[in-house]
Amino acid sequence: MTREIADRVEIIFRDEILPRRADYDRAVDVDGDLEPGFLKALKRRAFAEGLWNMALPRLADDEPGTRLTNLQFAPIAEILGRVGWASEVFNCHAPDVPNMEILQMFATPEQKARYLAPLLLGETRSSFAMTEPDVASSDANNIATRIERRGDRYVVNGRKWFATGAANPKCSLLIVVGVTDPGAPRGRTHSMVLVPKDAPGVTVVRKIPVMNHVEHVAPHTELLLEDVEVPVENRLGEEGAGFLIGQARLGPARVHHCMRAIGRCEVLIRLMVERAASRRTFGTDLRDYSSVQDAIADSRLALEQARLLVQRTAWRLDREGNKLARKDISLIKIAVARAYHDICQRGIQIFGAMGLTDETPFAESLSQARAFRIYDGPDEVHLRTVFRLEEKEGDGLNCSKDYLGRA
Amino acid sequence: MTREIADRVEIIFRDEILPRRADYDRAVDVDGDLEPGFLKALKRRAFAEGLWNMALPRLADDEPGTRLTNLQFAPIAEILGRVGWASEVFNCHAPDVPNMEILQMFATPEQKARYLAPLLLGETRSSFAMTEPDVASSDANNIATRIERRGDRYVVNGRKWFATGAANPKCSLLIVVGVTDPGAPRGRTHSMVLVPKDAPGVTVVRKIPVMNHVEHVAPHTELLLEDVEVPVENRLGEEGAGFLIGQARLGPARVHHCMRAIGRCEVLIRLMVERAASRRTFGTDLRDYSSVQDAIADSRLALEQARLLVQRTAWRLDREGNKLARKDISLIKIAVARAYHDICQRGIQIFGAMGLTDETPFAESLSQARAFRIYDGPDEVHLRTVFRLEEKEGDGLNCSKDYLGRA
Amino acid sequence: MTREIADRVEIIFRDEILPRRADYDRAVDVDGDLEPGFLKALKRRAFAEGLWNMALPRLADDEPGTRLTNLQFAPIAEILGRVGWASEVFNCHAPDVPNMEILQMFATPEQKARYLAPLLLGETRSSFAMTEPDVASSDANNIATRIERRGDRYVVNGRKWFATGAANPKCSLLIVVGVTDPGAPRGRTHSMVLVPKDAPGVTVVRKIPVMNHVEHVAPHTELLLEDVEVPVENRLGEEGAGFLIGQARLGPARVHHCMRAIGRCEVLIRLMVERAASRRTFGTDLRDYSSVQDAIADSRLALEQARLLVQRTAWRLDREGNKLARKDISLIKIAVARAYHDICQRGIQIFGAMGLTDETPFAESLSQARAFRIYDGPDEVHLRTVFRLEEKEGDGLNCSKDYLGRA
Amino acid sequence: MTREIADRVEIIFRDEILPRRADYDRAVDVDGDLEPGFLKALKRRAFAEGLWNMALPRLADDEPGTRLTNLQFAPIAEILGRVGWASEVFNCHAPDVPNMEILQMFATPEQKARYLAPLLLGETRSSFAMTEPDVASSDANNIATRIERRGDRYVVNGRKWFATGAANPKCSLLIVVGVTDPGAPRGRTHSMVLVPKDAPGVTVVRKIPVMNHVEHVAPHTELLLEDVEVPVENRLGEEGAGFLIGQARLGPARVHHCMRAIGRCEVLIRLMVERAASRRTFGTDLRDYSSVQDAIADSRLALEQARLLVQRTAWRLDREGNKLARKDISLIKIAVARAYHDICQRGIQIFGAMGLTDETPFAESLSQARAFRIYDGPDEVHLRTVFRLEEKEGDGLNCSKDYLGRA
Fold first, then answer.
1. Which of A293, A296, A370 to mutate to test the interface with B (most CBs of B within 10 A)?
2. Which of B328, C200, D71, D273, by CA, is between 20 and 30 Å from C181?
3. Chains with 3 or more CB pairs under 8 A to chain D
4. Domain boundary among B188, B206, B236
5. Based on the domain organization, do C50 and C144 belong to the same domain?
């Protein structure tokens, strides 16, 4: 069945999305139309055909779309990753997917009705506001935004950035992470609240350029939250559950992000191969330079290994859950960001000056890949996590006894 | 004397340029004023004080400014490299410096009076139009633009891009490389002509975004040349001398570019050190993470080595000329682009998300550094040059005889 | 069942092999006893228990041992890889396994009876003589040894090296590659012949030190073949089938080699973790240096990815055969050699001076890993193969049309 | 003058040393003659011609040989580095040079007469015993050997390894580092004593194989010191001055080591060029593979930069002394070890299997280069030092104020 779904997605991609790349960019970048008519039409079609919400393994029977496991979603995500906005056609786009996921897991029925339902229908957008400019947010304990309880309301104060998508006018919901109890035990200090974007005290400060580029549909947004009040009913999950929910959110979000990047990389490698076959310098076809051959083969090597690791991670996530797949989730974050980054770098060298411009997807992809090494925690944080788990897993072993010392 | 000049440049930089970084960016990016009033005033001051045209070792006695050797210019270039527009204050900016240089070397007295003089005064700007979108331009033999002689005129037809600065309204001169005699022996097929930008048939197609970023003052420009006519007197140097002049142009241009990048890197390293001292994650100051220490120390190592090589190259260029310094010129191109690139990468990891934004110089610098690996020939071309020279220098030796075989 | 077999191998490894590391090294290096008594006893036990010839997926029903697929053998190979001589206990050691494999595939019944049978019983050893000192053997077409037909005999003349194991006195069989018909079409010029090591004209020149180390059990051997005569019945496969057989030999040989290396790497990572926990410099435990954590996490990342790729390759080899798994076989060669090499390098930095000595397995492993990048074709050859296949697979596609050009 | 000296050394090298490579190796490795007759003769000639002790910038007027600065010694050291034993011909070999240097600086007249004089004449050898197997010696504070004062004697107890040269029968002097006062302030806990190798209680445990290789002339030696007694007059320098002297020793030792490695690398690059010109695979000369060209050009790039940095370091050492050159000394340690290591790696890939054997200098050089990354402190320690100095030098600056924040 998954194969059949992927085939249908592929057909829509090939016939309806890929040919409209230029139309879309013109609509968004020139006309400022963030959801052009053909996109709306494609979304309706995808919804009607059930090619919808495929990235939500917890999709309830009464929720619209088709429930797939993370592993089943992999080949579809690879197709969608080829073009930035393809995911939105099928309501499989970030950050709404991970936001929907935590609402599915932690929201009350009332919260679901109000905030999740319209997201599941693709009628609105949401943003996750965690990272802050004033602290090293890779350590979530540093998050300083205050969420203070005053009677039956929470009052939120803080500055956020990299709240993806918040500046999109269609965005109506902010999921805000902040300190509810600074005196609580480590890991229980923070909570999440659902903040309507139009709540008094919410200011969209600006869209932040990332690697010199301002995104419009899912802009990295700076937000100011000044005495923003929400009813206590807007808390997501328990008080103090902020990190727990944050962790739950990250697993699948990363896996999907990795899958999409892998799909993009397939296109990039293919473009490199075709370029190598069509250009000539110093009397030699590019394809006959061994360094060009190496660049392409090394790209394949990195991509193939990254894909297998991502697939295993998806499989573990499906079978064992977020917690047991933790090491794998950190590993793929590092591996895919690196592979993606390196492939872009090699592609630019093969394309030369053209690779730097907007006439190939390399420059834009490189910027994404570069940022990917930072988002969801810089590589460094994940390496640390992997090390800690490596230590733990070996607990009690004593290889040194057996393998050290002169044999 | 050089030290004293550098000190004076440093003071102007510190007191007049650095404090106006924000003013400048606002003028250029928001107001579209590419030469704001304070810049004009600073140029007048620099001119009056003789801190002018210091990047032109061939500056004639009757030309304005102070003649310095390439080596003497090194510490000054490092100061200027810290902020993008600082070079312009002292009329030491690319691409006008290398363009002036080839005019000094190859222009007739009439050409000098008309085209060089206003550049030396900083009254106009120029652009060098070599690279073409339709061919692999890293091999200059591929350059396809035709410069056909018809009677006492040349007719130019072709498409160029990466003609730096051409789209700046102040630019009045294009130095165009093209084929004058496709049947000439290799190396003698191309010539250069001086084309007034307002000549009929010249179309500025667009400013090309490079790494997602559109430059305005020295934009990478795409040009269409359709039946552009210039008198034969506008040929620069002899017919067939296109590559010769191109080679002459590249040496000093690269050296200066490298020096500026090194100056920028000094700032970047310093920012990394300060950041490391001021942030804390997981209970540890960034400065106590050994990987952060390594990142900074490795940056110092790369920079120090690159600087020494650049200085030696400048010294050789001054003493032995372009041709004998050829290997060094290729080496610094590779070394500095890499060092600059790696330093930016490390800086972004240390700054985290902020490093991706416009609140630090890292993202912009990374884009520059990335492009630097392509401009003036991708690394690959220079590695090839180095190899060929390495082969040549060892000609006749036979180390294998002495060092191979079981001892 | 495979799990149960692996468990039994694990027990023998843990109880009988690991404790005898020192005994074995002493026997071989000090006493010159290449098959000490306890090894013989262990072999008998393994044979008796059917833990024998597990690396031969083509094991016939009437051949001794247990037939496993390549994929089933993977976890067992990982156990055996931890200690160099463990494979021999179970008759799963190189180069006899790949040699037996081509005999299984290409030998006549008579050849099998004479040459394969004793190998299957572990009673003798064999060597594969392809690489030559006088030509760049990574391109097998360069192999220059002549195998000339004279009546009903072949006369072999040439110089070989890296004929693994040939100098071991127990080795009785050389499988020699050479030119039978220099005028044949490319790919049909070479054949293989079975040469008894005691044939007149065979000279064992020396054991070649590799990375300063002379192996004794499976020494890299230099051979001189002077007018060595064998009956035509000693040709393996058809005349001109040399490369075909060579290719058939390489697939599984590489996969097994990779699996063993992965098992070794598991030990090395574990040793690094334990060392990091037990040493302290400059007031900090090694395990708290982020660069040490990174080294270990990066090792895990590389190993995990390499393992998945190796397992997929084994699976493909089992299902699709050598030819269709060709790209994967080249990919794992590169990936595992790199991972192994890098892990050794990192381990040495963590162990410091001790890592260079014989008190840890790192130095020996690094030498192996270094050589691994050359054996079976240097990385460069495999990158080239991957590139060619990449080109082929994309044949007819035209991504450039869809993804290039300003969107 | 230096040029003239270098020329004379070059002639001896070319005419007398290089042709005897095989003789020397045979004498040492096969015959066990660590100072063959022709070496003795060459030493006499070098001594007679004053080409002696050129690596000792503090050479007193009444000491034999020619005093050169570190910078003057550079070109000579590069010649000597090409062949391992060439330095010994001119009494410029490690570890005797740095040992002589600290004797020159810190020894009493009596100590000089007894221990330094015969070293200056090349009549004996010495060893420096600092590193210990039982502690992480990269942090010298960990050194645990006890040097206890008992009356007018010191009693030394401890285990040392990597005491270079100690196991050479000609070695008569051990310079031992150990704790004299564990309660002293940090940096004053350790002292050095001069221990005659034949003192009771000194046991030469073994020559330690490094990267699988046992050196005989300057073997990495493990020593056991059990109740070894020396008179207090044998203390070198003041009590507590152990680290001070150790620091003084390291500067020039590292610089010379780096210079020699650079000379070796010149040979290796040359061999790579020649090999590339002489081999052919897959229908293409190696020299036409761009990846081979890159490998050689990258080697040149690394070497040229390393050399410049080493020369500047020598110049600083000569002018400013050990302490002010500290950052440079750490930088060259890292840079040269890396360049040397990478050049060996690339050479092996170009030479293929032959590069792994004893028929080229690559395998031996790689082992040396690998160890070089550990000796005198692993790279990690030097990166840390560089970082600390980088922090210190920027003290008080505040670039962040000027360069951060949206411009």
1. A370
2. C200
3. A, B, C
4. B236
5. no
> How close, in Å, is residue A254 to chain B by CA atoms?
17
> For residues A129 and A176, is the Cβ–Cβ distance under 8 A?
yes
The DSSP string of B46-109 is HHHTT--STT-TT--TTSSS----HHHHHHHHHHHHTSTTHHHHTT--TTHHHHHHHHHHH--H
What whole-number distance in Å separates Cα of residue B144 and Cα of residue B131? Answer: 10
The answer to whether position B134 is within a domain reads yes
Chains with 3 or more CB pairs under 8 A to chain C: A, B, D
Query: Which tokens sit at B38?
Result: 């304070």
Q: Residue D285's closest chain C neighbor by CA?
A: C136
Quick one: pLDDT band at residue B93, thresholds 50, 70, 90? very high
Domain end: D107, D135, D159, which one? D107
What is the chain B residue with the closest CA to D270?
B399
Mutate to test the interface with B, among D387, D391, D393 (most CBs of B within 10 A): D387
CATH number at residue B168: 2.40.110.10
Residue of C292, A212, C159, C302 lying closest to B355 (CA atoms): A212
Together in a domain, C277 and C148: no
Regarding whether B223 and B136 lie in a shared domain, the answer is yes
Tell me the per-residue pLDDT of D72-108, one tens digit each, with 9 for 90 and over.
999 999 999 999 999 999 999 999 999 999 999 999 9
Assess whether pLDDT exceeds 70 at residue C279: yes
Q: Hey, what are B126's tokens?
A: 């120029």
The token duo for A339 is 């592979």
- Do residues B301 and B375 both lie within one domain? yes
Indicate whether C84 belongs to any domain.
Answer: yes
D250: pLDDT confidence band, cut at 50, 70 and 90? confident
> Mind listing the pLDDT tens digit for each residue in C124-177?
999 999 999 999 888 889 999 999 999 999 999 999 999 999 999 999 999 999
Residue A198's domain comprises 125-236
Number of domains within chain C: 3
In Å, what is the CA distance from A143 to each residue of A15, A132, A254?
45, 7, 21
Which residues of B fall within a CB distance of 8 Å from A161? 353
Instruction: Give me the helix-helix angle, D290-324 and D70-81, nearest 10°.
Output: 140
Q: Is residue C116 part of a domain?
A: no
Whether residue D274 and residue B25 make contact (CB cut-off 8 A), yes or no, is: no
Task: Give C18 to chain A, closest Cα distance, Å.
Answer: 7
The pLDDT tens digits for B347-397 are 999 999 999 999 999 999 999 999 999 988 899 999 999 999 999 998 778
Q: Which residue reads 């007249």 in tokens?
A: D109
- Establish if D114 belongs to a structural domain: no
User: Is B378 close to A349, i.e. CB distance below 8 A?
Assistant: yes
Q: Is the pTM of this model over 0.90?
A: yes
Residue of B nearest to A208 (CA): B357
